[in-house]
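1st attempt posting a full record on here, be nice pls
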Amino acid sequence: MKKLYLGVIAMYLGILASHAQTNPPQPVKEDSSSYERRKLKIDEINFISAYYHQNGNNSAVTGGIGTEKLTDFANTFDLQMSKYSQSGKKHTFNFELGVDHYTSASSDKIDPSSVSSASMQDTRIYPSLNWTVSNDKTGNAFGLTASYSHEFDYQSFGGGINFTRLSKDKNTQFDFKAQVFLDTWKVILPVELRPEGYGSGSEHDKRPVDYKPRDSYSTSFSLSQVLSTRLQAALIVEPSYQHGLLATRYQRDYFTDGTERVENLPDSRYKLPIGLRMNYFLDDHFIIRAFYRYYMDNWGIRANTAEIEIPVKFSSFVSVSPFYRYNTQVGTKYFAPYGQHDPSAEFYTSDYDLSTLHSNFVGANLRLSPPNGVFGNAHFTSLELRAGHYMRSTGLNSNIITLALKFK
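the predicted structure (as tokens):
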């Protein structure tokens, strides 16, 4: 039941992606008499651990006022293995296991009279498996993904496909991905708004609660182009659609007539982010990475995000990458602060994630990749430490620090 803010989490996911790089193509092993099938081997192992802390005074649980204090400790283990088939195709298997544990002061306000409600802390577990078949000669690939996630108030089943196509000169690459997530929410209500006999949702409370579906469908189209020996660019379009229970029912809303209700939002949402990424290799020591994204949805939210990161290579195995990102957002028409909702409104929220705001995110990444391995261990190929500070115009501030280890 945690609410981790999209700007910060996007950076966290970015570091995950940066450690899932494809290995250089490897020749198919053959002899003069017959084909020798390669055995399944481990390509790389990644371990990523992140600590996140936030504070603010606009909790949606209590109608847009009150503490937003939250901590999250996230760990991800990633194992990549591969083998070559008799036809010479490379089969890559990527298994990922994530475990997050969080504590949330705001979620504990669902029932303020309790010493500590079941929602005050929780652990989320989310395994996934991806299988990709690729051709080393052409660079083309096709893959399938399955995933699962479980938390105190929901569970999710996911599936997806992805494929890659490269031009003959390898200068143009097209990537496509489609995913579906079928979620089930446990409908938890604020204690004072529960009907007679309605449960709290705690595993020790045997009174019934409702369960509602939320289905998410997303696609991603990416076209990458080598424009020169120094400049590369990518255009990314990621339309998505959600349907089901999209409101968070344990979040309160307060109206100008003094009444109180649970949050209510439309049961469908279309999203359309469009991004442009450019990498410029200035020389052997400097790279300029720039990113811009425009976002829109049918709830009326419009957002612009600009980001720059400049990796500085001090030697062949030490680099530091300072980064900065700025985001500005026009909020949904359904948002209003505490006590300012119109009693006649059909939809309403006091969640400041959906309000008009701007934010800044600044930090740096340190990467070590010695030729003889980290600490002299040849299998320990890289160590990265990334730290960032997030500041939002609503008063929310957060810090995140991430450690990533790669073994081959």
